Amino acid sequence: MSAGPVAAQAPGAATRHAAPLARWSLWVLLAALVAGLLVTLVWLAGRYEASQVQDKLERDTAEAAADIRSALNRNVQHLLALQSTHGQRAQWDREAGALLREHPEWVRIEWRDTALGILAAADSPFRPPAFERMGRPHAQADVALACASSRRMSGPAYSGSYFLPQVDGLGIEVMELCLPHMTQGQLAGYVVATYSLGDVLATLVGPQLRRSQEVSFTEADGTRLALHGVPRRGRRVFTAQQLLDLPGNTIVLRMDSWRGAPDVFPNVLTALVTAMSIALVIVLFMLGKDMRLRLRAEQDLADALAFRKAMEDSLVTGLRARDLQGRITYVNPAFCQMLGFSPEELLGHSNPAPYWPPELVDEYSKRQEIRLAGQLTPPREGYESVFMRKDGSRFPVLIIEAPLINAHGVQTGWMSAFLDISEQRRIEELSRATQERLQATARLATVGEMASLLSHELNQPLAAISSYASGSINLLKAHATSAAGSPAIADIEVAMRRIAEQAERAGKVIKSVHDFVRRSDKDREPVTPQHLLEAVMPLVSLQARKLGVRVQVRAKAGLPPVLCDRTMVEQVLLNLARNAMQAMDEAAVAAPALVFEVRHAPAGDAAADRLEFSVGDVGPGISDEVQARLFTPFFTTKSEGMGLGLSLCRTVVEQHGGSLSFEANRPQGTIFRFTLPQAPIPAAASIAATA
Amino acid sequence: MQPAANATVFIVDDDASVREALAWLLRSRHLLGEGYAGAEEFDAMLEGGWSPSHPCCLLLDVRMPGMSGLALFDRLVERALVDVMPVIFLSGHADVPTAVTMVKRGAFDFCEKPFSDNALVDRVEQALRRSQEVLQERHEQQRLQARLTELTDRERDVMRLVVEGLPNKLIADQLDISVRTVEVHRARVFDKMEVKSAVELANMLRRL
Q1: Chain A residues with CB inside 8 Å of B97's CB?
Q2: ipTM value of the model?
Q3: Confidence of residue A596 (pLDDT cuts 50, 70, 90)
């Protein structure tokens, strides 16, 4: 018995354990995936941004290189223009000065002869003379190299850069430009311009390019030659390099951007949007799940509703709901059937309801007002009322009302249940009628018994009077014949005769009264014992229930009918049963029981064709003292009894030619027995039937 | 025919005044009444070995406490006393149907209370006469029986054939005795049976 559920439970518990575990790991996996996705997204976005920055830097570098290259070319043009003043020293000085003022990238411009001897020179007005510390001859090798190249190419040539210490202790990186001066195909001299690389960067690179990045010249091996722009500390530095290929010299233009790390914020924003999308999906998923739950709940609800509906439809009890305004909001089929109205005729109907009898509308309206005002809670056991069917017939109903309370705990109306109690009423009426009939018979029987008893009791003294009178007359007659009759004796004889006559008259009066109340033999009919018992059983049960007595009937089926006045015999049974139950009640018997029994009377001369009825109890029995006087009229042990019950029973039984007796019941109590004659078999009728 | 002087009328009634009044009434007609207060008392008297030696009858009240008149009647029927002691039921109105039944079962009569007294006494006298007759009958029979027992076997054989109406000669042949012997037996039978003729003898025997 106990092994089954335990065994069945174990796998159930395991699955219950396993399911959340799987769900947990799924959730963790989902979270990890989402995190991975977000990280990847941010990383990709950062990379993209970095590549964007790198691209821009590359472009900027290319642009800066182009700027420098074109500016250098323009400068070459300016120097060419300066050559046209060869020969006029003063003019050259003036124009060289003007050029130097316009081009801060130049440190010095020189006019040299074909042997590289300096003819004229001008220093940049923006700085102290650059060669003051080192002296110009220090740079003679570089100039010579550049001029050799220029003469070979018949065009401008640049020297390699070199460091030129300055008087202030610092130094600048410079580069020489040598431009040959050709006059009619003959070398006439050279123009040498010295560029300061740092100033080249400062002047020739567009200001928008310099603003956010560091621009520098480096050797091919990465040695930094000149730098422009304040180096900033960024978390990340982007670098782009461009080869600046000049005639005679090649340097690398390098640009460093310290934009720092790519901005996190927009990426976070992207991530946020992504996260929200994921959240949205999850929410959608959950909504879907919720919807499924809801659908299932709805399905369950629909099932429950169908169940309820079937239940309501199958009820024989009428149901009706009203809202707080008294309008009918619901009726079940039983209610409609009870009244004969269709649901459509009832729903939404307010006062007066169509099933209220017109004469009772006022009373019902008042009752409903009180009910709706909530001043009076309806009795739990219900109350009775009268309704009218559609055809106008009235019928009693039992109404049980209860407040209708919705899911929020607010009363929305009243629910009432109706029971058609007309059948119950009819049975009650019938039972009452039976009881009244029996009571009436009982009264009549009591009166009859009174008369019978009176006649018996009076007959005795009357008989005595009559006897004495007759005897006296006899004696007087004898006296009169023997002796001479005296007038006095004759008078006495007359008086005696009168006494006898009056006694006889009194007897006749009593007889006539008795005959009047006594029921005649004509009322006798064949009745089966079962019918007799069934007739008294409702009343017996009524009292038995009140006193807690168990009633038992032992009557074999197929017992023949008895010939009797059934109401009188019912009375006898009822009397005996009541006596028995009262006796048991007064003695407070633990398990009171009442046994009716009918059987064939034991064989005997007088009882050959009789049935014996007995009523037995388990009461205290009858004392000897009471036994002696039991049938004495007007003798009773009950405070309110008249003492006629048993006497009446005996009279009735004896009138039927039976006898009433009693004996002690075993193990305790008393049994009263009486016999009744069987109804004769209607021989004449059977002969007539066969004929 | 007046009832014998020693005739007794038994009165069984629970009411003493009624018993006394009835006894008084009977005495006024020169009849002896003997009262009993109840059926049990009377039954006890019968139980005590009473046997009817002289005419008697019983005035019996139907309804009494304890043993009823009807029960007592049943006892009398059992004892085969209702012939020699005719029973007249005294009944109230309620008991009339019962009393009628009892008459059918052998009661002499019933009288409704209050009875018309001299009529009752008349019936009592009739009952007593009946009782006397029955008694006489019984007495006759007893005497007859006694006489019959006095006869010898041979005499009884002769008597049987005489009653059958056979002449002496034939009787002698049948019994294989002489005619003379038959005549002697015959005379002795007549003598013992106190009859004078064969016809008288036959009548007497028929009564048995």
Answers
A1: 521, 655, 657
A2: 0.72
A3: very high
